[in-house]
Design goal:
Elements (H helix, E strand, L loop, with lengths): L11 H11 L5 E9 L6 E6 L1 E3 L5 E4 L12 E5 L2
Antiparallel strand pairs: 1-2, 3-4, 4-5
């Protein structure tokens, strides 16, 4: 599913599952990421490695290795 910091995830669900499994999902990011929700187009700040759009509930995840850029934050699904 994932090889080190290669970022070889096929979906946002895989990212969220991985960070939950590793216990990183509630870890604060060094710097908040600006997210444009893919579901409702709301703009919000992602402050922890697993965050949810406050408007529609779309869940986003990012791995520790890639938490420096919003381009690596992937949507997993609404209320995932």
């Amino acid at each position: 599913m994932h090889d080190g910091c290669s970022g070889a995830f096929e979906s946002g669900k895989q990212i969220v599952d991985k960070i939950r499994m590793m216990g990183f999902n509630a870890t604060p990011l060094a710097c908040a990421l600006e997210i444009d929700c893919t579901n409702c187009h709301n703009h919000f700040q992602m402050e922890i490695m697993e965050s949810q759009c406050p408007l529609c509930g779309m869940v986003y995840g990012v791995t520790p290795c890639h938490s420096h850029s919003s381009k690596f934050a992937k949507a997993a699904g609404v209320n995932y």
